[in-house]
Amino acid sequence: MRKLMLGNEAVARGAYEAGVRVVSAYPGTPSTEVSEYISHYDEVYAEWAPNEKVALEVAVGASFAGARAMACMKHVGVNVAADPLFTAAYTGVNGGLVVLAADDPGMHSSQNEQDTRFYARSAHIPLLEPADSAEAKAFTELAFELSEKYDTPVFVRTTTRLAHSQSFVETGERREVPLREYVKDIKKYTMMPASAIGRHVAVEAREDRLAADVNGMDIVREEMRSRSLGVVCSGVVYEYVREALPEASVLKLGIVYPVALDRVREFAAKVDRLVVVEELEPFIEDTLKAAGIACEGKNIFSRQGELSTAIIAEKLLGKKVNAEKLDLPVRPPVMCAGCPHRGVFYVLSKLKLTVSADIGCYTLGAQPPLSAVDTVLCMGASVGIAHGFEKARGREQSKKTVAVIGDSTFIHSGITGLINAAYNKSNITLIILDNSTTGMTGHQQHPATGYTLKQEPAKILDIVEFCKVAGADSVRVVDSYDLAAVEKAVKEETAADGVSVIVARRPCALLDRNYPPAMKVDGCRKCGMCLRLGCPAIEKQEDGSARINPALCVGCGLCTEVCRFDAIKEGAR
């Protein structure tokens, strides 16, 4: 059947048809939907793991047991999974093992633009890069076959543009691949030094074999047209190149590591000028130059952001494609109307505290008018940063410092930071913004929500009790919408010695759409206090007075708590 699919849906379909049995992942844009689509297939066990390291370890375990398995994550998640990843390259696999890594050129929803291709080279793991949804399905299926043929994990790398764009896919039937027999093999699966030394030799032999075989693979495709310009490219960039340079000859690399150097040499000999067009780092370009193949690349294109048809046409042909730009107002991301995090950040800003925050919706607390966040580094880092801040500047300064983290992110990688702070006699206050979901990536379940990826009831991690067991000296719960209670808790906990935790609890406003009546302004004194909340439902009119847009307001009531003149009241929908 022919069906229009997102790239992420096509990856899921490819894994399903390839006979995958176990899929583990942590949600991260742009990879999240892969697991969500897979969860609809009853034949596949699929789960949300607490983090990417655990997800890959689960997939490795399933592979050792003889099943085809996959772990899914975004590019920064590969950092978290790097420890098992590098050693899994040594152990090899039993059942096919695929790692879906989604990169984010342009940083649409990420804190960096790192390039997963370097992980493939460093870990000596092959990497496939599809150009559209049809290839996303086909390459995922191929990845399982290559994994078993060459006894290696295999990367499938996508990018935001591929993950979230649609093209037609031919679907087929699922192949029920039988479990491979598990045979105890200490030298293969137990990576103590004596075993690892031998496996390193096997990894290099496998890589040499792959480097030779890749030159004969069908997913390396040559398209000869004009001899004046030859382009080497891969992934979604191929689509841009074909549209921008219809006369150019193209060598499309479906497998990016290892690079098919013999095929590139043959192609280079047929064209007058060889240009590598690739997003982010000069991965392919540097590989070709190291092999003595003359080419151009990053002398023409930037290492930053996404490429496009217009950029490629302009850089290589001097053509301006759709060059006219509309003068549109900037639309920065903001916390939703009724977001429970807003009140906490309002209080932190009011108290002029130094705030180390984390990756999630609460990162938006850095935006004006709240401007409450000082640092954001990576998942779970807020706790360690606050602890390091206290150890560097002393107790008195730490009274003005708090760490902020979400419930899902706390489970992902904040737990160890809390344990470290308690163990090392820190004096910090950690605020866990518990909105009962993984919010930024679209409301996925986690161990504290009580449901699995497949929406089955599950045991609930009690965050409050866990923090006590982890060594926190004080743990208290407040309602995120109760500004007075939040302020009281923050003042008291930052003044106390030891490690304290405030769980600011209120479900995400988008989880339950049965909102109370919208608020309305009656008798505004133009003081502007309500505008300091940064709520998108509160609008400043030309005369300086405030107005509440009933189409956006969810009736959370925060604005009534900050209005000094009782000018905001409950209205009607």
Automatic annotation (TrEMBL):
- The answer to whether keyword Iron-sulfur applies is yes
Q: Kindly give the SUPFAM superfamilies that the UniProt entry links to this protein.
A: 4Fe-4S ferredoxins, Thiamin diphosphate-binding fold (THDP-binding), TK C-terminal domain-like
Top enzyme class, one word, equals oxidoreductase
- Keywords from the UniProt entry: 4Fe-4S, Electron transport, Iron, Iron-sulfur, Metal-binding, Oxidoreductase, Transport
Q: Which residues form the 4Fe-4S ferredoxin-type domain?
A: 515-543, 544-573
- Read off the InterPro entries from this record: 4Fe4S_Fe-S-bd (IPR017896), HACL1-like (IPR045025), IorA (IPR017721), Pyrv_Fd/Flavodoxin_OxRdtase_N (IPR002880), THDP-binding (IPR029061), TPP_enzyme_TPP-bd (IPR011766), Transketo_C/PFOR_II (IPR009014)
This entry's Enzyme Commission designation comes to 1.2.7.8
Q: Does the keyword Iron apply?
A: yes
Q: Name the residues that bind [4Fe-4S] cluster 1.
A: 524, 527, 530, 563
For this UniProt entry, the molecular function terms from Gene Ontology, in alphabetical order, are: 4 iron, 4 sulfur cluster binding; indolepyruvate ferredoxin oxidoreductase activity; metal ion binding; thiamine pyrophosphate binding
Q: Name the residues that bind [4Fe-4S] cluster 2.
A: 535, 553, 556, 559
UniProt-listed Pfam families = Fer4, POR_N, TPP_enzyme_C
- Cofactors that this protein relies on: [4Fe-4S] cluster
Describe how the cofactor binds.
Answer: Binds 2 [4Fe-4S] clusters. In this family the first cluster has a non-standard and varying [4Fe-4S] binding motif CX(2)CX(2)CX(4-5)CP.
Q: Which reaction does it catalyse?
A: indole-3-pyruvate + 2 oxidized [2Fe-2S]-[ferredoxin] + CoA = (indol-3-yl)acetyl-CoA + 2 reduced [2Fe-2S]-[ferredoxin] + CO2 + H(+)
| PANTHER family from the UniProt entry | 2-HYDROXYACYL-COA LYASE, INDOLEPYRUVATE FERREDOXIN OXIDOREDUCTASE ALPHA SUBUNIT
Q: What does this protein do?
A: Catalyzes the ferredoxin-dependent oxidative decarboxylation of arylpyruvates.
Known partners and oligomeric status = Heterodimer of the IorA and IorB subunits.
* Name of the featured protein: Indolepyruvate oxidoreductase subunit IorA
- Which species is listed as the source? Candidatus Limadaptatus stercoripullorum
- Gene encoding it? iorA
